[in-house]
């Protein structure tokens, strides 16, 4: 019988428009090199098909989801630069998209025949344990809490490895002269503080506070009194520990609480950084009305969120996709114009919008570098499947930002007084500050 790699190669070439752009290795030890010239100037990439189960997973879930399941389960792995593999997809264009969307019925027939020859046919396999299993009414408090814990309760040590000492899981701000991740995250926190106009003693709310990095910065550098809320008990525990270690317990409070349940007095400043994506396509107006209620008259809201460029695209993340099943269950990306309209329909006045698209691409590449540098430790901390998930999602997202398929915006809004006054400066000199943009 022909070796496995040689048996698989014609099928891969057919699916990819006639070219084999990577080295293919199979579970029987056989291998096929990339076609001459197919790898261009890219670093070499090897795709390892470690088990016949990989083919079975792809057969029953053709396209992105089946490939992701096979990779997360360890049935398919890669050797080499993950960005080089994603670059293969970019150069293949429509042919690679054909594989991600799913092969046609015409392509499935030879695929089934190949699987039969390799003894890979059988019943569908259960999804890897890392796949989210959302239950309950969409965006109920219980389901939202479950979705957040799926993503964030991976382990604080794992996130510390990936994110670095800043422990900030949102787009950094690579200001002039900033060339390391920790300083870029501090610059982002400072940018948010400036936009919110924080002053000593001012109360600030951080919706989705993560491990507390922003509230710590606001209290330490601006003397603010900060409240951070999260749905993740693991995040809250570490955030409280960091607050205590910084000696800021008199100025910073961390709660495990749904933002919709907050009944505190309105705040002069509200930050929502990397949280709006979890709200969902049908809950945007509820979110806007809630945050508007939490902003005091004359106060400001800074909404920092990933966005989709095309307003005609569907807002929700496809629940059948890799991202929807393994990374951000129940999430949604909103087009920035719709974000502006939604906030204004809730009684807020949008005063400033800034795109940070290139900044997020650079941030994600820094996270991937951290993950790759600590790959063995990452697998020990979170498990091999979760480590593969995060590498694939972060690298793919970096390329998505670089190519403009996704974006990110900071939208700054105020809640006007009853007479229409906003207390907002008439010029952009409010961005100037004597505070440093680097350091912790």
From TrEMBL:
Similarity comment: Belongs to the CFA/CMAS family.
* Annotated source species: Iamia majanohamensis
A GO term for molecular function: methyltransferase activity
**What does the entry give for GO biological process?**
lipid biosynthetic process; methylation
Q: Which ranges carry the Polyketide synthase-like methyltransferase domain?
A: 158-373
Q: Does the keyword Methyltransferase apply?
A: yes
Q: Which InterPro entries match?
A: CFA/CMAS, CMAS, MeTfrase_dom, SAM-dependent_MTases_sf
| Residue span of region Disordered | 119-146
Under the heading Pfam families, the entry gives: CMAS
Key word Transferase present:
yes
Q: Which SUPFAM superfamilies match?
A: S-adenosyl-L-methionine-dependent methyltransferases
User: What's the protein called, per UniProt?
Assistant: Cyclopropane-fatty-acyl-phospholipid synthase
In which domain of life is the source organism classified? Bacteria
Q: What keywords are assigned to this protein?
A: Lipid metabolism, Methyltransferase, S-adenosyl-L-methionine, Transferase
